[in-house]
């Protein structure tokens, strides 16, 4: 018996076998479709699932089509070998056109909007700093600002979103309150912010001190930005993108009910502590269930540590049984964790993290989601400092559509006649990327550039 979440079904969905409300109540008999009116009625009656011995035959949701039905459309340049100074990786291993699984569809830019509810519109009152920073993004000054100024503005707004997440967590910890409407509206704004400023926002990386002092906040913010970026690449519609963002912001909420020393620890956890820590997905699920969040968001929080092979937790689900949001947050959360320095481990470079996910040892992650991350950020992700074949140092500032191996970079310490940073397209010859700098090399480069400017 197959189970389908009502919240994920669209009007005029056809099934090839009878659709049941329970073991005895027949809901739809083929060839009739499940109508929008029936879906609305089921939601009003508080039903969350339907069952069938068969499966969807046509009119599948966009997400299901993206993950199951289309063929690869990857350009030839993207299939070339990915070569570095210290390592060689063949992208064709991950971008096989004969694979039945869909590779990443062409990106589009949907206009996110707040989740529609039956409640009357209630203005959300935010702190002045947050509102002011948000206005800056839409203000004329953003359009006229140079690259450096735009980055500074985006950093300011990014910090305000982090402050919002911190206030939200604090509010829940002290009052056990979560405002669904406010969170959804804020995430809707965040989706627009990410979509319009991807090349800047992906360059932001909180400091070592900030990450360890406010781990839950920095991790939740960064993971959510990555999840939304993946969702945009997968052409998710606005409502689904907002739900994904809400699940991303709240995916570690269950940790608040655990002793702080577990997630603020400066050393590896003991086996007993790990077992206790692994309960945070269930705790988060229960919190959202009690607060009446949509089931799809609840499952995204519950499933974000599940793995395609069934080796994850808490339910040891495999492949198709893992929720869509859970699959996406799993990749975003893992990428963020791999690149995050902690007291007891050094962070890997974003290149190393991308390679680790692309190798996908034991096929832990959904290949399509990993590919979406690759095409959103490139093999050398936005923000990474790299060495070029011509001996110069550069920072990756944008992706090249269809060619994740050769992103756009900004040459460090060089400006044009107007004083603007020099930006170039990398290639396979004199502007080939040799490798990414490690954390110390990047820090030394930044310090040296600051000294020169003084």
Automatic annotation (TrEMBL):
Tell me which SUPFAM superfamilies the record gives.
Answer: HD-domain/PDEase-like (SSF109604)
Query: HD-GYP domain: from which residue to which, for each copy?
Result: 194-389
CDD domains, per this entry? HDc
Region feature Disordered, mapped onto this chain: 96-120
Gene3D superfamilies reported in the protein's UniProt record: Hypothetical protein af1432
- Protein name in UniProt: HD domain-containing protein
